[in-house]
Structure formats: structure tokens, C-alpha cells
Design a protein that fits this description.
Radius of gyration: 22 Å
Largest sheet: 2 strands, antiparallel
Structural class: mainly alpha
Shape: extended
Low-confidence stretches: none
Length: 131
């Protein structure tokens, strides 16, 4: 007994065994290998970007920190596109008049960012990359 409720004898051991079996099945699955590969590639791209342009990465981080300092966490806001989801990221809004360089940075001022859900942000950025 753990002080709150009775746990049947052998329950914890059975749960550990079930979890070990599920983990082994996941580790052996093609989806696991694909996920591991994608994660490693993403980490490598990030390291490569940092090595190529550490000053640019610092500017990116400063811009996002300025948005956070003025407006808080994106998750405290609803998605800007109106989908009804909770925002996950601060997304730069391309084409805004005030979106020019900000304090020597290639990133816009904090007013140029809006909270967006992850999927909406990805679609928005992909549409602007294609344009």
C-alpha cells in the first residue's frame, strides 16, 4: 500500500514488463528508425547552421527573446490565423510595413511577430518560401 490506495501484488512488475515489450516493439519498428534518422539529421543541420553563422544565430535568438520579453510565451495566446488552436511559436509576419531591419538585425521588430500554432506556422512559412 502506498498511502493512497492498494496496489495489487505484482502490478508494478507486470506494468514494467508490458512497457519493456512495447519499447522493444518500437525499437524494432521501421518508424522508430525513421524517427531516429530524422532527429539526427535535424540536429546535424542545426549544428551546421551554428558553425556557419554563429552571429546570425545569436541575432535570431535576440529577436525572439525581444518578442518574449514584450509579449510573453506564445503558448499563452491563441493562434493568430484564427484556427482556434493554442499558439506554439512566435512567427515572423512577412511583408508587414514595419518588418524592416531592426537594430541592425535581419529580423523584424517584436511587433512583426504573431503567435501561431505549429502547423499553421509551418504552412505560413512554406507558402512564403515558395512565393
Amino acid at each position: 500500500m502506498n498511502g493512497y490506495f492498494r496496489v495489487p501484488a505484482g502490478y508494478a512488475e507486470a506494468a514494467r514488463e508490458r512497457n519493456a515489450v512495447r519499447q522493444a516493439e518500437w525499437d524494432a519498428s521501421p518508424a522508430s528508425a525513421a524517427w531516429e534518422r530524422a532527429y539526427a539529421e535535424r540536429q546535424a543541420r542545426t549544428r551546421e547552421k551554428l558553425m556557419r553563422d554563429p552571429a546570425g544565430m545569436r541575432a535570431y535568438q535576440r529577436a525572439h527573446r525581444a518578442v518574449f520579453d514584450r509579449r510573453g510565451h506564445a503558448v499563452d495566446h491563441a493562434c493568430f490565423c484564427g484556427c482556434g488552436e493554442r499558439a506554439a511559436h512566435w512567427a515572423f509576419q512577412h511583408g508587414r510595413e514595419e518588418s524592416g531591419r531592426w537594430s541592425g538585425s535581419p529580423y523584424g521588430p517584436p511587433a512583426s511577430y504573431e503567435p501561431m500554432a505549429a502547423g499553421c506556422h509551418k504552412r505560413y512559412d512554406n507558402a512564403h518560401r515558395a512565393a
